[in-house]
Design a protein that fits this description.
- The protein is of the alpha+beta class.
- It has 2 helices and 4 strands, in the order βββαβα.
- α1 links the parallel β3 (29-35) and β4 (61-67).
- It has a 4-stranded mixed β-sheet, with helices on one face.
- The model has no long low-confidence stretch (mean pLDDT 95).
- It is 35% helix and 24% strand.
- Keywords: Cytoplasm, Lyase, Phosphoprotein.
C-alpha cells in the first residue's frame, strides 16, 4: 500500500490517539510521538504503529501520533483507518 495523501484518524478524547499519516521522501517510517506517558509506553506505542504499517505493506511514511492514553487495539485501529484514507483505498483487508 502506498501513502498518496495526508490523512487523519482519531480524536483528542481521553483513551484515544490522533494519527496523522503523510507521504515520505525517505525510504523509512518516521514516527513523531507526543504522549504524556511516553517514558512508560512510548516504545510500545511506536512498536504498534510500526507493526501495523508493516502489516499493511507500508514501508515509507511520516507519522505524527498524539496519544491521550490509547490502548494497543485503539492505536492499531486508528493507524489502519489513517492508512486506508491516505492510500485512497476502497478495498479493506481486515
Amino acid at each position: 500500500m502506498e501513502i498518496k495523501t495526508r490523512a487523519v484518524a482519531g480524536t483528542s478524547e481521553s483513551s484515544d490517539i490522533t494519527i496523522i499519516l503523510e507521504p515520505s521522501d525517505s525510504n523509512e517510517i518516521n514516527i513523531n510521538l507526543t504522549s504524556s506517558a511516553e517514558k512508560q509506553f512510548g516504545r510500545q506505542i511506536r512498536k504498534v504503529i510500526n507493526n501495523t504499517l508493516m502489516e499493511l505493506g507500508i514501508t515509507r511514511a511520516n507519522v505524527t501520533a498524539i496519544d491521550f492514553g490509547a490502548l494497543d487495539c485503539v492505536i492499531k485501529a486508528r493507524v489502519q483507518t489513517a492508512a486506508y484514507r491516505a492510500a485512497e483505498s476502497k478495498e479493506y483487508k481486515w
